[in-house]
Design goal:
Blueprint (H helix, E strand, L loop, with lengths): L1 H21 L7 E6 L4 E8 L9 E7 L2 H16 L4 E3 L2 E3 L11 E7 L3 E8 L2 E6 L4 E5 L12 E5 L3 E5 L4 E6 L15 E6 L4 E7 L10 E6 L2 E6 L3 E8 L2 E6 L4 E5 L11 E5 L3 E5 L4 E6 L18 E6 L4 E7 L10 E6 L2 E6 L3 E6 L4 E6 L4 E5 L11 E4 L5 E4 L4 E6 L2
Antiparallel strand pairs: 1-2, 1-12, 2-10, 3-6, 4-5, 7-8, 7-12, 8-9, 10-11, 13-14, 13-22, 14-20, 15-16, 17-18, 17-22, 18-19, 20-21, 21-26, 23-24, 23-32, 24-30, 25-26, 27-28, 27-32, 28-29, 30-31
């Protein structure tokens, strides 16, 4: 009898501890939403369906300051002087012709953990106040900002679940979520992804750029029957073919699903958010298998600082070096900003504050090393190839040095 009581006690203790772990939502986006009709809601926030954790990225475009535009034109003029001009439909491009397309904005993104508040300015523009005191305007560059936002839900602790549309929102004030707070949608998905080239990545999972929580459902056809499966019941998903996937259930069963973008080559991508570098995404053709595992630990709101100016030393091919504040590709100048590129079939978004060094390999590739020691040979983006719009270093004496890609060798960032 005594042994049975002890066993029951430990079982109860285990269940209690498991429940506590399950309810650890301290890594979830949390805050207070003020609406335009003077309502307030407080709770866990699900943004555009697939952003629910502080590590997730709010995507948009940012306007370039006038100094950046002038620098881009000077840099472009230097490049055109080295190129032959061509004529397309009567428009001369290249050479010394002044008819050249300049962009007044740049693709941008920031992880939610850096945000203090978000204020809606108009239909497609927001003002972000960062923890560091910096203010940044972002415009519509994805469904994260503007009328096309797919879903915005707040789980108010007293009023229940509230779904809002873009026109409802006036301001969002972000704050830490308590570990014990519960979500009706379950826990954030976490796992280990293997690509068809054998590369492995671990982190928080976003499936089909859509499903991120254990109560979210994937669906498909099994022997002409529709199946809907909660991801919390799934142990692994493996690519079966271009048109299907094998879903392994925790019960030990397995099913082959076909016929929807959850399980075939119309899948919009599988994202892994890795706190050590940022996030990566693979398409169905590169995907091999995803094994779901418990999250190692939450990444909480207080682990983000709101960013600071990029600082470091830039080395030129000539042997000269320049130390100071850095503006990369003529538009990224803060640690919260994102460097992007492709690596072995995967698309990478790497937070600059997590980068230790960038070393040019060729006109088309760079070796990016993050502070935890991992390196990725990235290509396919003007952040890491000859399309780079220039590296600008503001030195301690105020002098600004510009290094073009043909002159650039390596940068070492200050931590």
């Amino acid at each position: 009898m005594k042994g049975s009581l002890i066993t029951a006690f430990w079982c109860l203790s285990f269940l209690t501890m498991s429940g506590a772990l399950k309810a650890d939502n301290s890594g979830r986006i949390y805050g207070r939403i003020y609406t335009k009709d003077n309502e307030e809601f407080v709770g866990l926030i699900r943004w555009d369906k697939n952003e629910v954790n502080w590590v997730d990225v709010l995507d948009g475009n940012k306007d370039l300051p006038e100094k950046n535009r002038r620098a881009a034109k000077r840099h472009g003029a230097q490049d055109r002087d080295r190129e032959h001009s061509i004529e397309i439909f009567g428009l001369k491009v290249g050479g010394n012709d002044e008819n050249f397309w300049w962009s007044d904005n740049a693709q941008s993104g920031i992880r939610f953990g850096h945000l203090k508040s978000l204020k809606v300015i108009d239909d497609d523009r927001v003002l972000l106040a960062l923890k560091s005191g910096i203010e940044v305007e972002l415009t519509e560059g994805s469904t994260d900002i503007g009328q096309d936002i797919r879903e915005l839900i707040i789980e108010d602790e007293k009023k229940g679940e509230i779904e809002l549309v873009w026109d409802d929102i006036e301001t969002v004030e972000f704050s830490p979520a308590q570990a014990g707070i519960k979500s009706r949608y379950g826990d954030r998905l976490y796992g280990n992804l293997t690509t068809r080239r054998g590369d492995e990545y671990s982190g928080f999972v976003c499936w089909d750029v859509d499903e991120v929580l254990t109560d979210d459902v994937i669906d498909g056809e099994e022997r002409d029957r529709t199946r809907k499966i909660e991801l919390g019941t799934v142990s692994a998903i493996e690519r079966y073919s271009s048109s299907g996937a094998t879903v392994f259930l925790k019960s030990g069963d397995q099913v082959i699903l076909k016929g929807t973008n959850d399980v075939d080559d119309s899948n919009r991508g599988i994202i892994i958010s890795d706190p050590g570098f940022g996030q990566m995404r693979v398409d169905w053709d590169e995907f091999s298998r995803l094994d779901f595992t418990p999250a190692k630990k939450s990444v909480t709101y207080d682990q983000f600082d709101g960013g600071r100016k990029l600082n470091g030393t830039v080395y030129a091919e000539s042997g000269e070096s320049y130390t100071g504040e850095i503006r990369w590709d003529n538009d990224e100048e803060y640690t919260w900003e994102i460097l992007d590129g492709d690596y072995r079939g995967a698309e990478f978004d790497v937070e600059f504050g997590l980068i230790k060094t960038i070393e040019k390999n060729s006109t088309r590739t760079s070796l990016v090393t993050v502070w935890d020691g991992r390196s990725f040979r990235l290509r396919g983006s003007n952040d890491v190839d000859e399309e780079n719009k220039g590296i600008f270093i503001t030195q301690a004496n105020g002098d600004v040095e510009q290094i073009g890609w043909d002159e650039f060798k390596k940068v070492e960032f200050a931590k």
